[in-house]
Amino acid sequence: MSRRIEAALQLFHQHKKAILDAGARRGKKGPINNWEIPKLEFLQGVVPNLRLNGVPIQWTADVTEHAHISVVKEPADSGNNQAYEPQICRYLDRLDKINNFDLATSMLVAGVDFGVRMLDRGLLNNSPLPKRTFKCADNVVIHLSRDPPLKRMSVDAAASLFNLPDLRPSLVDYLHRLQPDGFVTNIGGRRLGRVDSHLPFTHLEVWKKLRLQTKAYHFPHGLLPPVTVNAEPPSSNWPQGHIDSVILNMDSSQKWPMSGINGHVVADIVLIFRLVTPPPALAEAQPPERHVTDRFLSYVKRYDIITQSDINTGIRGQFPESSSSLYTLKKGKRTSGEVIGDIVPLDQVRALVDITPRLGQVADRRLTKETSLAFCSEFYLNKYFDKEFFYALTLT
After folding, report:
1. Entry's InterPro entries (predicted)?
2. How far, in Å, CA of 392 to CA of 257, rounded?
3. CA distances from 116 to 120, 124, 250 (A)
4. Dihedral through CA 88, CA 89, CA 90, CA 91, nearest 10?
5. Rounded CA gap, 74 and 9, in Å?
6. Dmax of the chain from CA atoms?
7. Of 2, 3, 94, 166, which has the fewest beta carbons less than 10 angstroms from its beta carbon?
8. Would the CA dihedral through 20, 23, 26, 28 be positive or negative?
């Protein structure tokens, strides 16, 4: 079609002068000595515009006009010509509910089976187990991306990337101490594993962040906005890694946030992962039980609360500092000076927290927002981080 238009225009330009010379272009008052025809002038730009912008149907207003009819005119006609906007929104909301109900009943009558039960049980090839969205407690939900950024990474490679020389020993200890319910009650203790210890698996799936959503303290049915918890390896922008601190539950009888800090610890999440068992033909030893592999784990570094004297009783214990009313923390360390790190199931995470450096009289020149967790020795547990965390630490 474009070629035909161009050919017609070329033929016109070849003969337009001859037509004028012959006086063949005439009007009511006689010969017209020009070609000032708007449609003819517009035709000159049709082919170039088609080549630049595509077919003209995509620029039509028909789609917008049809949408205006279905989402504005028809809902407005069903009202009483008062408060158009809320009535239109109410009409569309009810229409959507009716359509969804009609779809659900039609599927039920037709006996449509989408394989949801099989998907939940992991019987389909594309079933992502363990589930990427799961409930940790009645008021805590965690979500991970379906595909991990690091799908298959050897244990030693992960230890090197995240600068965790004790990753293999900590995995050995985790498997050795694992209880039937999988709950971890302690971070630390005597290290049983060694850097050359054998594991019944060789690779990990690694995630660099998670999404955490909790409920309001005073309104337990109200969902709070989800937050991101980072666990990224060291990089040029974050030399010590981009990691966040969380509250971990260590006592299943204590329920966050009503229990406050009791039965919980503060820790940095350094690594989020899942064990990848080798195929049976390649396994060198008995693989871990399924309740171990079908669970997300984390490598965490523990903080200890610095004991203070209670301003009312004078008893020393895990009390907030009197001057700031904040808990003061220090990194948990072994007798060798090594920071205490261990493996904890990810479903024991309860909340994101803010750790503020306690600088003292002289600040370390190496401290920046990217390195303060690595080079500072003492910290404040900032209860003013958000009001929900404030309630948890002050109303218990």
Report:
1. DUF6830
2. 5
3. 6, 10, 34
4. 50
5. 46
6. 117
7. 3
8. positive
Helix 46-53 to helix 2-21 angle (10° resolution) is: 160
Cβ atoms of residues 335 and 293 within 8 Å: no
Gap between the Cα atoms of 55 and 1, Å rounded: 12
Indicate the DSSP class of residue 81. S
112 forms bridges with which residues in the sheet? none
pTM metric for this prediction: 0.67
Among 246, 268, 141, 161, smallest CA distance to 206 is for: 161
Q: How many CB atoms lie within 10 A of CB 68?
A: 12
DSSP one-letter string for 229-280:
EEEEPP-SS-TT-EEEEEEEE--TTS-TTTTTTTTEEEEEEEEEEEEEPPPT
In sequence order, what are the beta bridge partners of 211? 143, 228
pLDDT tens readout for residues 119-167: 555 555 555 567 888 889 999 999 999 899 998 899 999 999 999 999 9
Distance, in Å, from the CA atom of 40 to the CA atom of 36, rounded to the nearest integer, reads 8
Give tens-digit pLDDT for 199-251.
Answer: 888 899 999 999 999 999 998 888 999 999 999 999 999 999 999 999 999 99
In three-state secondary structure terms, 200 is: coil
For residue 265, which of 184, 171, 169 has the smallest C-alpha distance?
184
Task: Return the closest-CA partner of residue 205 out of 152, 250, 144, 157.
Answer: 152
Element holding 389 (H helix, E strand): helix 387-394
Contact 271, 167 (CB under 8 A): yes
φ and ψ of 327, to 5 deg: -70, 135
Question: CA-to-CA distance for 198 and 169, rounded, in angstroms?
Answer: 9
CA 338 to chain centroid: 32
Amino acid letter for position 63: V
| Residue 96 confidence (pLDDT) | 94
Instruction: Please check whether residue 224 is in contact with residue 233, taking contact to mean a CB–CB distance below 8 angstroms.
Output: no
